[in-house]
Structure formats: C-alpha cells, structure tokens
Amino acid sequence: MRSIIALALAITLPLSALAEEAAEKKAPEPSKTPEDCYALACKALCDGDGDLYWFCLSKGTRKLMMEQAAEAKKNHQKELAAALKIEVEALEKLEPRDIALRQILGMMNDEYRKLLKEQKLTDVKIDGDKATATLEIGDDRMPIEFMKEDEGWRINVSGGGGHDHDHEHEEEGK
C-alpha cells in the first residue's frame, strides 16, 4: 500500500508543480503597436521562447503554420523527422503547433540572432485594424503585415488578412 501511495505522489507532485508553473506564467500584454509586436517576436525567437513567439502571430498565421506542419508530418515524415533531428516515432507524437515551432526555433543560430538584432522595421502604416511595414536587413527590404486581434497587434503572414485563407483560395480558383 505504501508503494502505491509513493508512486501516486511521485506522479502527481511533478504534474501539480508543472500546472502551478503554467498558471504563474501569464500571457503577455497585447502589443500596443506593430513595432512592439515585432520587437516581442524577435525577442521570443532570440530567447527560444516558442510560446511567446506563437502569441505574436495572428490566428490566421497560426492556422496556416499548423496546416503546413500537419501536411509535412503526413506526407514527408522521414524528411521532417530528419530536419527536426528526431526519430519518426517521436514526430508522430507531436502536434502540428509543436512541429511548426520546432521548425522555426531550429533555424535559430548566432548568425540569425545577429540578423534579427540588426534589422529595422520602417515605414509602418496603420489602416484601422491592419498595418504594413518594411523590414530592412542591410540593403534588402521585405514587406510585413500586421493585424489587430484580441486587443493587440499580431504578425500576419497568412495572406488572408485575418479571414479564412481557404475561402480566399476557393475564390482564386474560380
């Protein structure tokens, strides 16, 4: 009987500690500007904080990333597992969100962190709940979009401007 109680405590105490830790880690405040959102996303990437990075993305962007990860998991298991440096069996247990974040965080190295710190966000133009900006990296320039969602700004790369991008693809196919 003692061994059963000891086993139960050994299992439940770490779980309750994890639950307390998760409860203590509260969501960050929504970004008040696109610039704040981008700075927070860069910090998250440099720090390897996937949860914080995920928070900086629009719902449409998250959905697109999860769909792409699920498709890669289904159709390219061996290649994806190799890229993530895990066994196929471990890949099978991962959710699409975790796969997407592992792919992004796996790209982070000192060179990429340096680029993130050197780049500049310029030409920010806000139009209601949408914003555009230019990301300058040396002589290179790249457009970036943001949208206001849940009281804060989020990076939007879904191409759908917050709308269901599947519907837009249906419209394109007509």
Please provide a written account of the structure:
The protein has 174 residues and is α+β, with helices and mostly antiparallel strands. It has a single domain (31-172), classed as Nuclear Transport Factor 2, Chain: A, CATH 3.10.450. 59% of the residues lie in helices and 17% in strands. It contains nine helices and four strands; from the N terminus they run ααααααααββββα. It has helices at residues 2-24, 34-47, 50-55, 59-75, 77-84, 88-93, 96-106, 110-118, 165-172; strands at residues 120-127, 130-137, 140-149, 152-155. It has a four-stranded antiparallel β-sheet with strand order 1-2-3-4, with helices on one face. Strand 2 and strand 3 (140-149) form a beta hairpin. Helix 4 (59-75) crosses helix 7 (96-106). It is globular. The N and C termini lie far apart (68 Å). The relative contact order is 0.15.
Helix and strand topology:
Elements: H1 2-24, H2 34-47, H3 50-55, H4 59-75, H5 77-84, H6 88-93, H7 96-106, H8 110-118, E1 120-127, E2 130-137, E3 140-149, E4 152-155, H9 165-172
Count the beta strands: 4
Task: List the domain count as a whole number.
Answer: 1
Instruction: Specify the helix fraction band.
Output: 55-70%
Q: What is the N-to-C succession of helices and strands?
A: HHHHHHHHEEEEH
The name of the CATH topology is Nuclear Transport Factor 2, Chain: A
Q: From the structure provided, what is the oligomeric state, counting identical versus distinct chains?
A: single chain
Number of helices: 9
Integer-rounded radius of gyration: 20 Å
Uncertain stretches of 5 or more adjacent residues: 1-23, 160-174
Bulk shape:
globular
